[in-house]
Amino acid sequence: MKTANIGLLGFGNVGGGTYKILTDNKKLIENRIGVSPKIVKILQRNRNKKRLVDANPNLLTEDPDDIINNPDIDIVVEMLGGIEPATSFMLQSMKHKKHVVSANKAAIAANYELLMSTAKENNVEFLFEASVAGGIPVLTAMTNALEANNFVEIMGILNGTTNYILTKMTEEGLPYEEVLKDAQAKGFAEADPTADVEGIDAANKLSILMALAFNKYVAPSDIPTTGISKITSEDIKAASEQNKKIKLIGSASVKNGKFDYSVKPVLLDASHPLAGVSNEFNAVYITGDMVGELMFYGKGAGPLPTGSAVCGDILSIMKKYK
Amino acid sequence: MKTANIGLLGFGNVGGGTYKILTDNKKLIENRIGVSPKIVKILQRNRNKKRLVDANPNLLTEDPDDIINNPDIDIVVEMLGGIEPATSFMLQSMKHKKHVVSANKAAIAANYELLMSTAKENNVEFLFEASVAGGIPVLTAMTNALEANNFVEIMGILNGTTNYILTKMTEEGLPYEEVLKDAQAKGFAEADPTADVEGIDAANKLSILMALAFNKYVAPSDIPTTGISKITSEDIKAASEQNKKIKLIGSASVKNGKFDYSVKPVLLDASHPLAGVSNEFNAVYITGDMVGELMFYGKGAGPLPTGSAVCGDILSIMKKYK
Fold first, then answer.
1. What proportion of chain A, given as a percentage, has pLDDT over 70?
2. What is the CATH number of the domain that holds B7?
């Protein structure tokens, strides 16, 4: 059986989840794909941090060049987060003729065109299912099974933290600040929640969705973005009284060649499929000219759901080895 | 640009939808895939039937051999419905080294193992996204993006006719017979509704889902199946009073190697994601060991949604031409 040699850049939550899936489900993957996944190196910059799983210590390195410039590695999986050095590492890997899989929405949204063109020039695959809506296979669906459609509209609940906060405000009638503190205590929100609650994370994901759906790249900073930090208990109550729900929606549509896009809190009818998406779940609602309306729902974060998407991309590359 | 030569077996609703998509979105497909789709022959057995679209009359034939045994055709798309002659036509096409795409759940569920092994022996692709849940790309997701998962459970609203009837019974408090007549008048139910209302159609789809998810083939006739024809207005009312909904659910799960499967009406909590799936919409709810819970929602029937799925399969084969 052929082997796919994989290098992991980053060993945090997503890196740990990916490692666990490739290890625990190795036999299953070999049976389904006919190629064996082998992790040969892992970049772990901070050895003292508590890890989701323990990797074989012989695999660990602190030098990114051991992966990016390692002739034994075919697939580089970038899970560092942040724009740099992640973008540079991905570009260098492509120039060394390695396929790249990434979960890093911020880096991809910031440098989409450069990353795509560099992958094309070097004739390598560049896949990033995990960068939008975690485990939900929406990018793969858009670029494969739905590819005969002109996409008309995309609407998504793209951030689990804000959806969790809005759900708790709605169900328990509590004010924003109190729910945020509780979410931070439970690990659903970060100590600095700005990127989530101000819609920046959702804008990164919307930028990637637009690029794939409409072949139209808009930088996240050019997407009109309003977060949820100004939503009050009174807003929530007023929505409930009209049988509506407030959701943070990233949306983009095209009509007669004109694009319309934003991230903002939206009042949805309770009967809208996105209105029923609660807690930390994500969902993407897509309209294609032929298929009509579709919705994809699932976990938008977490080591294993996100790792599932990363591994889907790795397997898609491995299939071509045969 | 390379050309993919396509033969259509059947020119009813799904055939017409597929023809329309490959014609209307031809430029889009060429741009995205880099290969041009060309329909070279269409089997149309009844020339007098009213058609969704008019095809170039030069393409039409009444002789299936003009497609199955045509050296100019690479991809045969089977959209005849029914077990025979569809199964024989697919097998013969494979033996003539043609890739096969099918929308025909009855034929695939009845002859799954023979069709899969014949495709493998002849080293051709056999894809059938449209056979389950119409336009919803659930089979492609399971066999691609989610492939690193052990699937644990599948639950689906797999039949639009019965979901439409149950929705109207719930929303309007009307008895089964009255709603069925109205559905027949509106074209949502067939003159002989048996296959839909008795769960036979859903059992065909569940058989295909199980084969892909668990690598476990169970003939549709071996799936315990109960339809909706005995559901009364009183049942619906009693469910509503408990804040539950009655849905016709095809479900399959595996635990410690033991499989459990059925098609039957199920009482779902109103908060379950499948409970909000109304009217003619379909949805499939999947649990994977790594990704957790996912739901896919959309139109399970209709010429264009089903044609979108057929075309997704055709494009997936075309991608390999490059």
1. 100
2. 3.40.50.720
Asked if B205 is an active-site residue, the reply is: yes
Share of chain B above pLDDT 70, in %: 100
Q: Are residues A179 and A89 in the same domain?
A: no
Q: Out of B136, B294, B311, whose CB is closest to A298?
A: B294
Contact A135 B305 (CB under 8 A): no
User: Chain B contacts of A308, Cβ < 8 Å?
Assistant: 146, 148-149, 288, 290-291
Per-chain mean pLDDT for chain B: 96
Closest by Cβ to B297, choosing from A135, A273, A314: A273
Residue pLDDT, tens place only, B304-317: 999 999 999 999 99
Q: Shortest CB distance from B312 goes to which of A144, A271, A305?
A: A144
Tracing tokens 């099974």 back to the chain, one arrives at A145
Confidence of residue A245 (pLDDT cuts 50, 70, 90): very high
| B64/B70 Cα distance (integer angstroms) | 10
Partners of residue A21 in chain B, C-beta under 8 Å = 148, 290
Question: pLDDT digit string (tens) for B253-296?
Answer: 999 999 999 999 999 999 899 999 999 999 999 999 999 999 99
State the nearest Cα–Cα gap between B138 and chain A, in angstroms: 9
Report the distance separating Cα A38 and Cα A86, nearest Å: 22
- What global pTM score does this model have? 0.97
Residues with Cβ < 8 Å from B131, sequence gap 6 or more?
B102, B103, B104, B105, B108, B139, B205, B208
How would residue A54 be classed by pLDDT, with cut points 50, 70 and 90? confident
Do residue B294 and residue B310 come from a single domain? no
Classify residue B42 by burial, with Cβ atoms within 10 Å: 0-12, 13-18, 19+. buried
Candidates B41, B205, B245, B247; catalytic one: B205
From CA B174, how far away is CA B307, in angstroms rounded? Answer: 33
Tell me the chain B residues in contact with residue A289 when contact means C-beta distances shorter than 8 Å.
Answer: 25
Same domain, A276 and A201: yes
CA-based nearest residue to A261, from A307, A311, A204, A322: A204
Smallest Cβ distance to B308: which of A22, A32, A290?
A: A290
User: A202-231, pLDDT tens digit by residue?
Assistant: 999 999 999 999 999 999 999 999 999 999
Is the CB of residue A92 less than 8 Å from the CB of residue A116?
Answer: no
ipTM of the complex model: 0.96
pLDDT higher than threshold 80 for residue A49: no
Neighbours of B211 (CB within 10 A): 17
Q: Are residues A174 and A285 in the same domain?
A: yes
Cα angle value A144/A148/A149 (rounded, 5°) = 105
Pair type for strands A99-102 and A75-78: parallel
Q: Tell me the per-residue pLDDT of A116-160, one tens digit each, with 9 for 90 and over.
A: 999 999 999 999 999 999 999 999 999 999 999 999 999 999 999
Which among A291, A314, A315 is the top mutation candidate for probing chain B, defined by the most B β-carbons within 10 Å of its own β-carbon? A291
Mean pLDDT of B29-47: 94
Q: Which residues in chain A are closer than 8 Å to B155, comparing Cβ atoms?
A: none
* A29 and A173 part of one domain: no
**Per-residue DSSP letters for B94-119?**
HHTT-EEEE--HHHHHHSHHHHHHHH
Residues A264 and A285 in one domain: yes
Q: How many CB contacts within 8 angstroms connect chain A with chain B?
A: 163
CA A266 from centre of chain: 22
Catalytic residues of A: 205
Q: Give the mean pLDDT of B181-196.
A: 93
